[in-house]
Every structure is written in structure tokens, then in C-alpha cells.
Please model this.
Amino acid sequence: MSSTAHIPNFPECDHRLVQGLHHLSDRELVQLFQRHGDAGRYFTAIFCRYSPMVYSLIRHSARSPVQAEYLFALTWRHILHELGGVDCPEAIAGEGPGAFTLQNWLINITALCINQAVVPEVESIHYALEQATPPFWCYVEQALDRLPPVERLVTVMALTFRWSENRIAAYLQAEGESLTAAEVRHKLELAFQHLESALPEDIRQIYLGSGSLRSEPLADDLNDLLTVPDLEAVGLADVDLVGIGGEVGSEWAN
Model:
């Protein structure tokens, strides 16, 4: 049996904004990423260039495909956070084998994540590559952090748990927020507008095109959504990430 990991297809790699960067060196991409913090295309181009390598390393170490995908996303989120501080000097003629290379740095970061990340059990993971690849997930998460708490919460309930406005309203009322289903729908519309506007312009072009983040929550009468353990005993301040429950950084071992 072959041990080769199946590498997922990432459509963003074929987008014109990403393809237009193919001729740039790793060094140039890193420097452009560091100089243009309001743009997402440079990180996305780095992702497209090295995602096969990172995914292969992670897939062979993960216990299940679902956990592999989640760890893959966590690893790229960590890369996004660390990339801004990478010392990437101008190329020097005759650089030796000890010179900085982005590939080696990414291998080291991936190994660190594999060894230190605490990946939850499969049933606790609400992340899937086909719904949001890591660059989009990372930038949506950053945009979510900029939303007011209630807007962030209703967005997570609608997009991640696919709750209806009625169910969201009932949950909020139990938490002391007196909102009707109609008011929840209005909150959601505002939240999606604010979320999209908080995304970098090029990320909107690459991932949304002429589309939108807006999603219609599911109906109330679906039996498999009657109990969602992720939100039991959870208050308004506790839900702030798409795909995971808990505080930022809780997925890392001490």
C-alpha cells in the first residue's frame, strides 16, 4: 500500500492574483508580505507554493484525516503569525548551505506544530478544507476578532453550527440578551457586512469574487441539531473562533 498522502486541490492557486506572483522568489514574497500588511495575496501565494509539502508532513503524523486538516489549518495560522518577524535579508552572492531558506523555515515550523499542537478529538472539530482553506480561514478569523462580541457570536452560530435565527434568539435570551428572531437576522446582516469589510480586498476577490459570506441558517426542526455540546454552558465571551472552542492559543501544549 502506498503511503503517499493525497494532496488536496486548492482553487485559490489558480486565481489570477496568485498566479501573477508565481515569478517571485520566496524572499520577495516574504518581503512583500511584511511590507503590505493590508494585503492577503502574498501569504496566499506562499501557501500555494508550499501547501503540498506542509500537508504531506502533517498527514503522515495525524491520527485521522479530519485532525490532519485541522492541524494543517492551525499550522498555517501559526505561519501567518510568525512570518511577519522572519528576518529575510537581501540575497547575497555565494550564499552557503547555512543561509536562510523559506522551505527550511516552514519545515521547522511544521515540525513544531506537529509536536506541540493539542488537536481535539474528531467530534469536537468543526473545520473542513472544502469549506475554507487555511488562508481564507486565517483572514476570516482575524476579521471575526474585530466584530463586537454579539455579532461575532451570532456569526459563529450561523456559519459554524448552522443555527436558525429562532434558535440563536432562544440561546441569546437564555444568556440575558433579549433579541427576537427578526433582530437576530438584522444582527447577522450587519455582522456579515462588517466581516466582509474587515477582510483584505484581495482576499475578498480571491475567495468570494462576486459572492458573499452570507449563509442561510438551517431550519429548527432538524433533529441532529437539537443538542450541540460545543455551546453547553458557554457564555457570550467564550465563543470567538470559527472551528474551535476555547481561547486563542489553547491548542498548544505547554
